[in-house]
Amino acid sequence: MSFILSFEPLALEPREHAEAGGFVSFEGKVRNHAQGRSVILLEYEAYPEMATAQGNELVEEAMERFGLLDARVAHRLGTLNIGDTAVVVQAAAAHRREAFEACEWIMDQIKWRVPIWKRETYADGVSEWVHAGSAPAEPHSDQIRFERQMRLPQVGDVGQTNLQNARVLLVGVGGLAAGSLPPLVGAGIGAIGLVDADLVELSNLHRQTLFASSDAGRQKVERAAAFAKRLRPAIEVETHFEALSETNATRLVDSFDWVLDGTDSLDTKFLLNEVCRKLGKPLVTASVHQFEGQIMTILPDGPCLQCLFPEVPPDHCVGTCATSGVLGVVPGILGAMQANEVIKGILGLPTLDRQLALVDLLTLDVTRLERIFNPKCPICSGSERSSALEWDLQHLPTFDFDLIDIREIDEQPNLKRPHQRIPMTSCYEQTFVRPTVFVCATGRRSFRLAANLRAAGNRHVFSLLDGLCNPALK
Ligand SMILES: [Zn+2]
């Protein structure tokens, strides 16, 4: 048994382990104040079986995660006085670093995962439950915490509730995440997922300011989770110490509402684009290069990354931070812009969903380019049909297009779907930037028009099969 609950004062003997170069023992004590109030007594209560099961699972996880030689936890239950030991954590490892890290990790995880409830009695005689499992109830402090942003008419009670119900996944916990994580946690996002297989390196720290120098060599996801918990203890944080891949992408993305791409791998960006489209999740992707960055928001019904770049460029075509260099502040700013997109999206405010923003941080110029559906995009169309001249409306992808009735103005009946009416002859005088579907009585005139316009360089024009007789128009 490596997780012990006890109603008696705790006394764990240090254990010997011949291979252990580091043995860390931590004791958590009851102190005489909490959040400005004078504490005189403390009680711990738990469902012992559930708490022991969770606790043992956690210690086993720590053993594996930090390669420990030994680990034990003892936690008090019942009534404790000031100065009593509430919890003891012991960890033995080959080196001191693993032992220290494991000890800290176990303490954090106990607070978040093990169902032990704490009741404080204050000097004025009042008693309160102050911690209930992973989500301490702090309704009043939340009111104070979010007061300034809830004043905004665009946020208010409803917006704040939406933020608190939202689950956001950060793929890549580096420089972009250093910009996006603090404002997301600060804004009150309910749950954050962190995916990254890397350890903190000294050369990361000029831009990855979530981490401290002492974090070098430690898991990025773990340190970022600790940052988030410090900023807002009530936040739920999931860590995945693994790289996103074709095998795990769907599993990792599935339970989240929004996804932030904070990687510098093109393969990962295209994979996320595909998986998010398949699962109907909005994705905010960004990349940085020296003094510049670009950012776009890809909504499930908008043009995707591959509409813009139909072919996945090989990773070596684009420099990464490691090869081309980057000013530390650049990913921070782009990351903050990503958080801004997510927060706006959750609040129902306009996002960069059909645009690509190019941000030059030397000149502070922001150039926004329109993004449109590419009928040849393998992700959005899922078939060759969209590149064909003729479309059958029943099988159209769900994306946005303009429908134009090209019959003469006096021809009846009128279309029941929203559309514009531009007679065929006038269509020849126009350029069609957005995907456009032409309709006529039988599909013959529209076919001829689309074919001619394509020949003249309009790539996104289509003819509706069978014209007014197409069942989708009934
Ligand atoms: Zn696409």
Q: What features would you describe in this structure?
A:
- The structure is a single chain.
- The protein is built from 14 helices and 22 strands.
- It has helices at 48-66, 96-113, 139-145, 147-150, 156-165, 175-187, 220-231, 249-254, 266-279, 305-308, 321-324, 329-347, 424-427, 444-455, and strands at residues 3-6, 22-29, 33-34, 37-46, 70-76, 78-81, 85-93, 116-122, 127-131, 167-171, 191-195, 236-240, 258-261, 283-289, 292-298, 355-360, 365-370, 390-391, 402-405, 420-421, 436-439, 461-464.
- The strands form 4 sheets. Strands 12-11-10-13-14-15-16-17 form an 8-stranded mixed sheet, sandwiched between helices. Strands 3, 4, 6, 8 and 9 form a 5-stranded antiparallel sheet that branches.
- The longest helix is centred in the N-terminal third of the chain and has 19 residues, at 48-66.
- Residues 132-138 and 382-387 have low confidence and may be disordered.
- The protein binds zinc ion.
- Residues 303-304, 306-307, 374, 377, 379-380 line the site of zinc ion (ZN).
Lay out the secondary structure:
Layout: E1 3-6, E2 22-29, E3 33-34, E4 37-46, H1 48-66, E5 70-76, E6 78-81, E7 85-93, H2 96-113, E8 116-122, E9 127-131, H3 139-145, H4 147-150, H5 156-165, E10 167-171, H6 175-187, E11 191-195, H7 220-231, E12 236-240, H8 249-254, E13 258-261, H9 266-279, E14 283-289, E15 292-298, H10 305-308, H11 321-324, H12 329-347, E16 355-360, E17 365-370, E18 390-391, E19 402-405, E20 420-421, H13 424-427, E21 436-439, H14 444-455, E22 461-464
Parallel strand pairs: 1-5, 10-11, 10-13, 11-12, 13-14, 18-22, 19-20, 19-21, 21-22
Antiparallel strand pairs: 2-7, 3-4, 4-6, 4-8, 5-7, 8-9, 14-15, 15-16, 16-17
The structure holds zinc ion.
